[in-house]
Amino acid sequence: MRTRRARAEDVEAIARLIEHYAAEGLLLARSRDEIHARLDRFLVLVDDAKIAGCVALESYGPDLAEIRSIAIEPAAHGKGHGGRLLRAAMREARRRGYVRVFAVTHAADFFLRHGFETVDRRTLSEKIERDCAGCAQAAKCRLMGVVATVAVRPMILPVLAGEALPVLSS
Ligand SMILES: CC(C)(COP(=O)(O)OP(=O)(O)OC[C@H]1O[C@@H](n2cnc3c(N)ncnc32)[C@H](O)[C@@H]1OP(=O)(O)O)[C@@H](O)C(=O)NCCC(=O)NCCS
Q: Which residues contact 103 (CB under 8 A, 6 or more apart)?
């Protein structure tokens, strides 16, 4: 098993995985065209050349990204593959310079195992505007918000950056 960035030939397998869980109401549906157009956001878990899982990292500005469409094929649940994919997505988020990642999920326990904390979903206002505003289920939605910090912005003190004020001699 290994994770890698998604390629055009993975679109069909990703779409089928998402479709499967969207039909159960566990993931938001995504069309093949949308997946294709946003392929650079996806990572896949590959088992012997077969796609066993997927996850997407959606940008919400330079500091914040959403982890969405995380899915492992049904036959492979509970073996740590979801955790592996989530950690890969968090590493990718760090590489891309994001500071925090969030998810809106019914599987909060899965995220809490990997260092996420719960937050009031209403604090994720951009997400609500983007995906929840037009949702027919919005009023009775039971999804939870979870967030994790993936990187700490380095703070360079002037003295360490060689920009300290000159010492005045008397
Ligand atoms: C969520 C998902 C990606 C986890 O993948 P996985 O390979 O089974 O996860 P791991 O083996 O790494 O971790 C298993 C642990 O995660 C937690 N977990 C897994 N699925 C969970 C769920 N639906 N709800 C709450 N916790 C869950 C459990 O604590 C589980 O521990 P257990 O085996 O002791 O019960 C997988 O169940 C999946 O594809 N689900 C359908 C799509 C989905 O619901 N995605 C999340 C919505 S954002």
A: 66, 67, 68, 70, 111, 116, 145, 146
Residue 137 lies in a domain: yes
How many angstroms separate the alpha carbon of residue 128 from the centre of ligand 1? 24
User: Which among 105, 141, 89 has a CA at the least distance from the CA of 26?
Assistant: 105
Q: Does residue 63 fall inside a structural domain?
A: yes
List pLDDT tens digits, range 95-111: 999 999 999 999 999 99
Q: Is 164 domain-assigned?
A: no
Torsion-angle region of 139 (φ positive above 0: left; ψ -120 to 50: alpha; else: beta): alpha
Distance 129 CA to ligand 1 centre (A): 27
What's the pTM value of the predicted model, to 2 decimals? 0.89
